[in-house]
Backbone:
């Protein structure tokens, strides 16, 4: 806001965006500030000991849900769209070329852009949920990611347990800093006019 000429990129995780920093996330989406948020979603708190996060799938295991997670999970991309983000995409670390493409598109978009990157946590999530290697998590991504255009021709039962990838949402809307500076300029003019009247 102080310097709108800067290209702002924020890198975060699913635990931060969906829980600890959830309010910051939804209100940044709502305001449509011109910045790009890249969320690494590994379905767990991978940096702090493997606690379950709001994106941990139901039925999964973690250090804080050793008997199974019964919480419903957030869909971060849908949450971003619902909160007002004007560009939302999702990709996997398996599809690096697709990931490169959506990040580039997010940078070019004028407004709040969210890129959810599905990443694996082989240590805390993988080992507790039947993935013996990092490759097996990548293979799971390959088998369960469905391109958004292909998903539109699929039945709900065919999409069960899968997730869509690509650009999920894009629209044009007034950008926050432009609105802010337009408003500030109008006050400057009002003050100038008032000063001239009092001379």
Residues:
């Amino acid at each position: 806001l102080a310097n709108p000429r800067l290209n702002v990129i924020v890198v975060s995780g699913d635990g931060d965006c969906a829980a600890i920093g959830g309010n910051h996330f939804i209100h940044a989406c709502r305001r449509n500030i011109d910045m790009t948020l890249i969320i690494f979603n590994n379905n767990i708190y991978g940096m702090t000991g493997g606690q379950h996060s709001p994106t941990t799938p139901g039925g999964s295991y973690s250090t804080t849900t050793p008997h199974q997670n019964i919480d419903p999970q957030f869909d971060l991309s849908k949450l971003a769209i619902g909160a007002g983000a004007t560009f939302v995409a999702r990709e996997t670390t398996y599809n690096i070329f697709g990931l490169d493409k959506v990040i580039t598109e997010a940078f070019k978009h004028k407004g709040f852009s969210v890129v959810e990157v599905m990443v694996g946590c082989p240590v805390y999530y993988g080992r507790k949920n039947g993935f013996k290697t990092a490759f097996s998590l990548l293979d799971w991504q390959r088998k369960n990611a469905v391109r958004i255009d292909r998903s539109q021709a699929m039945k709900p039962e065919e999409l069960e347990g899968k997730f869509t990838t690509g650009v999920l949402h894009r629209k044009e809307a007034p950008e926050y800093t432009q609105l802010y500076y337009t408003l500030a300029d109008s006050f400057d003019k009002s003050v100038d006019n008032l000063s001239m009247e009092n001379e």
The mean pLDDT is 92. The domain at 9-173 is CATH 3.40.50.970 (Rossmann fold). The beta strands are 9-13, 35-41, 44-45, 51-52, 87-92, 112-118, 145-147, 163-170. The radius of gyration is 21 Å.
